[in-house]
Design brief:
With about 140 residues, the chain is of the alpha+beta class. The protein is built from two helices and eleven strands; from the N terminus they run H-E-E-H-E-E-E-E-E-E-E-E-E.
Length: about 140
């Protein structure tokens, strides 16, 4: 069981894809803030164009915070496994911060990137407002 979990996490991390040319975002909230590196795909490029955004996020299944973006992002390849710290997109505008590892049902999620900070700040029940901004290079 432990081996299967490690394989799933490794696959999820490897599927994130190459990061954009050092494209990073800053996610701030009253619970703390984190930095994330974005994957290089059409969805993340569109996300960067809409930043900064403020998102009202609720807790879902005690594994993730979810909230709606102001506009949909383009569809790209989806996957079902995710690691702790994965930034994803469930529906066309449904932004997700995973604070635990796991698996989602089909059709899966679009991987937007991965948090490089302590994502456990979001591991508490309740809603939170986050601000997502592009980091200066």
């Amino acid at each position: 069981m432990k081996t299967a979990f490690l394989i799933a996490v490794t696959l999820a991390l490897s599927a994130i894809g190459p990061a954009m040319a050092e494209e990073r975002i800053h996610i701030t909230s009253e619970w703390g803030d984190v930095t994330a590196e974005l994957a290089d795909n059409p969805a993340t490029r569109k996300l960067v164009q809409m930043l900064p955004v403020t998102i009202e996020m609720g807790d879902h299944l005690r594994q993730e915070k979810t909230g709606n973006l102001p506009a949909p992002l383009p569809p790209v390849t989806r996957q079902q496994d995710f690691a702790k710290g994965t930034l994803g997109l469930w529906g066309p505008d449904h932004f997700v911060i995973y604070y635990r590892a796991g698996r989602v049902p089909p059709p899966g999620i679009i991987i937007l990137g991965h948090v490089t900070g302590d994502v456990s700040i979001f591991d508490r029940p309740g809603s939170i407002t986050v601000r997502v901004e592009r980091m200066n290079h």
